[in-house]
Specification:
about 35% helix
Length: about 400
């Protein structure tokens, strides 16, 4: 896919003049950066317009959408991103809030904000065959729900407005949260939760084997990671598609070759993935497992590969013994799972007996692991942007021929 005809308008507002400010984040800056990065998405920097804070006025946003319609012809790829306040007037339209937006009355909204109908008209004028609209609106500071803003202003974008924006062939709209939910900014984070995973996906975590990042793959990456981290936030997709079109180039450095990392000798599996019996850990482990299998890694888990009806301890011993490495996914919840700890102890014991490494801890969340795990070189995957490079490092380790296993005593 050539990116010489890919265009984007990226908008970010947090420090509003007339309404309550949002948590200060670098969402728009990060989004424009990954699109312009020649080692990532590879958009021509001249084709990526960034409007932040004081530059993100109503007139300037509308003017840039008009320019996008002029630049992006039928064979183009176009992307519009907005991070800021979004909401609905009770019984009325939905709105995006530019820097000078006011919500004191319906008239002030129409004069200072961008209604869903107006935005829909601007998007309809864009002739690009592939248009992606991404809305990271309705932020909540920390882990709290948005505070009451105005009796008749509801901090959400209605589904009907999203449907209108997605009308037309080749149109996709992604929203950070459902109309009854909030888009969260975790304390101290550089990006909102939705945009954090969006940027990680564009940096390669959502990439395919064809060297491209496709729009539905990008959404699925963001959705499952957001839900795994914060189940109350549910991203939304609206689309009228004939194909899962590409939105960006996938960084080649982040895509290990798909040559199978075949388990040598008498190992049946490359890795045994071990995680806490908590839905948050399970959800992330499923994503991690998929990324490993896409790279040819043979993965087993107790949930998927233990024989039904067999004694659990015997099955755990079998999976540990026939896996070259055991990968415990460490979170604060891991140590509460006794059978998960047992699998790591078994793998560590086999490593001592065989004189070869058998255990690679994966740190997903900051936690206090036991001493035996802290002493090992680990993969840190706390931030999403470290996941794909970490997998590449793991695959390189798997492709190294291990020392022969000693004969049974």
């Amino acid at each position: 896919m050539s990116l010489t005809n890919a265009h984007a308008v990226v908008i970010g507002v947090s420090q509003y003049r007339r309404v309550r400010p949002l948590p200060s984040v670098a969402d728009a800056e990060g989004m424009a950066g990954v699109l312009r990065d020649p080692g990532a998405c590879g958009y021509d920097p001249a084709n990526v317009v960034l409007l932040q804070e004081s530059d993100a006025t109503r007139d300037q946003i509308l003017d840039e959408l008009d320019r996008l319609a002029h630049r992006a012809g039928p064979d183009a790829t176009a992307l519009v991103y907005f991070s800021g306040h979004g909401g609905s007037w009770s019984g009325g339209d939905s709105y995006l809030m530019p820097i000078e937006g006011e919500w004191g009355s319906q008239d002030r909204l129409d004069a200072t904000a961008i209604s869903g109908r107006l935005l829909g008209d601007k998007l309809a004028a864009i002739r690009a065959e592939r248009l992606t609209v991404i809305l990271d609106c309705c932020h909540a500071a920390g882990l709290a729900q948005p505070r009451d803003i105005h009796a008749t202003w509801v901090p959400r974008i209605d589904d009907s407005a999203l449907d209108r924006l997605a009308a037309g062939r080749g149109r996709v709209v992604m929203a950070a949260a459902r109309s009854d939910g909030a888009a969260h900014v975790l304390a101290g984070a550089r990006h909102g939760l939705f945009t954090e995973h969006l940027i990680a996906g564009l940096r390669g975590a959502a990439g395919g084997s064809d060297g491209l990042i496709h729009v539905l793959d990008l959404y699925h990456h963001v959705q499952r990671n957001v839900i795994a981290r914060f189940p109350e936030q549910r991203p939304v997709l609206k689309a009228e598609l004939e194909d899962n079109y590409a939105v960006a180039r996938c960084p080649s450095a982040a895509r290990p070759a798909l040559t199978t990392a075949a388990a040598p000798g008498d190992f049946v599996y490359d890795v045994l993935l071990v995680y806490a019996p908590d839905e948050r850990d399970r959800a992330w482990a499923r994503v991690f497992l998929q990324l490993l299998e896409e790279r040819g890694v043979k993965v087993c888990t107790e949930d998927l590969d233990a024989e039904l009806g067999s004694h659990r301890l015997i099955e755990l011993e079998r999976l540990v013994s026939t896996s070259r490495f055991t990968l415990p996914v460490l979170t604060p919840r891991f140590s509460a799972g006794r059978f998960q700890e047992l699998q790591t102890v078994l793998a560590q014991q086999l490593g001592v007996e065989d004189g070869i490494a058998r255990l690679i801890p994966v740190v997903r969340e900051p936690c206090e692991a036991r001493l035996g795990l802290r002493s090992l070189v680990h993969l840190e995957m706390i931030r999403d942007e470290t996941v794909v490079p970490g997998i590449a490092r793991l695959v390189r380790t798997l492709r190294r021929q291990p020392a022969p296993r000693p004969p049974p005593r």
